[in-house]
Design goal:
The protein is of the alpha+beta class. Helix content is 23%, strand content 21%. It is built from 3 helices and 6 strands. A hairpin with a 3-residue loop joins β3 and β4 (42-46).
Length: 91
């Protein structure tokens, strides 16, 4: 099973809070920063709460909605082929 914690042991973002969602569109809310949101192909890091709260693509509510998916947000980083292979091995 893929989890953000397992992915972060591969990518090593240094996040205090990391979440994973395959499609990159629905997450629980982040609480500790720096924080990382992962999807099946990559990730985005929020260095502080202000970056997170002021990002125009994030809709904050009971859950975090990113209708365009995290891959469309500026700063999104795609996994290298090696990392992608390692992440898929977590399935």
């Amino acid at each position: 099973m893929i989890t953000a914690k397992k992915i972060d042991t591969i990518v090593k973002t240094g996040a205090l809070h990391a979440l994973y969602r395959e499609d990159g569109k629905w997450y629980n809310n982040l609480r500790y920063f720096p924080a990382t949101l992962f999807d099946i192909n990559g990730y985005i890091i929020f260095n502080n709460e202000s970056e997170y709260l002021n990002n125009k693509h994030l809709k904050h509510g009971k859950r975090l909605n990113i209708s365009v998916g995290i891959s469309q947000i500026r700063g999104y980083q795609k996994f290298t082929e090696d990392v992608k292979r390692q992440v898929l091995n977590l399935l």
